[in-house]
Amino acid sequence: MPKATLLRISDGVDVAGKYVLLRASLNVPVVDGCVSNQFRIVRAMPTINHLTQAGARVIIVAHIGREPSETLAPVAEAMQSFVPLTFVPAVTGEAVRAARNEMQNGEVIMLENVRQHPKEKDDDGSFAAELASIADIYVNDAFAASHRAHASLAGVPRHLPSYFGLNFMHEYDELLKAAAPHAPSLFILGGAKFDTKMPLVEKYLDTYSNIFIGGALANDIFKARGLEVGNSLVSEIDLSGSPIINHEQIMTPIDVVVDGPQGRRTCAPDAVSPDERILDAGPETIALLSPLVGAAKTILWNGPLGNYEAGYGEQTEALAHLVAQSEGYAVIGGGDTIAAVENLRVQESIGFMSTAGGAMLTFLEAGTLPAIDAVQNQLQP
Predict the structure, then answer these.
(1) CATH number of 19-172+369-376
(2) 181-350 architecture in CATH?
(3) To the nearest whole percent, how much of the chain has pLDDT over 70?
């Protein structure tokens, strides 16, 4: 994958006294009104610190959750322990302009969830222009959201000099390493929705020594092989006849954890009953992966091996232990994968933990993202 020359805010850009619209990645979990995981907040701080120390007036724009009603107020409160800031419960309008006009050099304000604005997801030109009108410079530090062609990501660069933040460039540089692995290499892909991941799997057959497919993605392969998958989650795609279902480089679980009327049990993939549901890989699968993980010089991992959010995380965490113990360079991404590593407190043993999930996969497949293209083609109508 060729490396493009991206415009970095850290490359001597003069921001002193200037209003900087910073698109950050702050889509963090909130439980009972409190942030339960600060991973993305911590990763946002190098760019915020760089800008404030250089005398910029930083206006943070971000989103949270899937519902427009969700608020960034708990995130702003959590960030107070990292940097003093003022939360503005609006995306545009007089309240935003008033707060902006009171700012001094080195100060920070955070706007409300940008997805509360109905025109954000449409990349509406007028909304992008309105966001841009309160700033002199735009910085995209939200790699995890940059596969979305939304106004705050793809639209604003049409109106302002634009750059990438420190976290964004860290993500970019590390994922380029994953795109050019050292052999022997292992790509572990979990989660669901095979229809969106097929091009990536086909591409990386030429790049990685072995590809292990787990999670609900494996159900699609089992089904295509003619095996019973019962009530298991499957994609809309039909893999029957696809060369990947029996490709020598493609590996799938050799045992699975199922649940059904008879309770939970572990069995071979060809022993699943019609009234059962596959919910995790089994321990024999981890034993199969162990020597491959141990020998790999590069490991790329995105997505859990089971229904992690429903409590089926045993084998995902077992795999996380293996990856942490490996001497190879590991790049991991995806919320559940990161959560497994953090639950085990082995993150210091992982080469790089991406803040991204879908954006990571899109970038690995395409080599770029809509928001990267927007900054590269900035100030063009």
Answers:
(1) 3.40.50.1260
(2) 3-Layer(aba) Sandwich (3.40)
(3) 99
- 234-263: pLDDT as tens digits: 999 889 888 899 999 999 999 999 999 999
Q: Which two tokens stand for residue 346?
A: 């082995």
Alpha carbon distance 173, 156 (integer Å): 24
Q: Encoding tokens for residue 313?
A: 């995380």
Beta partners for 60? Answer: 22, 110
Q: Do domains 19-172+369-376 and 181-350 have the same CATH topology?
A: yes
User: Would you kindly state where each structural domain of the chain is located, as residue ranges?
Assistant: 19-172+369-376, 181-350
* Interval 26-31 mean pLDDT: 95
Whole-Å CA distances, 122 to 25, 52, 65, 125, 320: 19, 31, 17, 9, 38
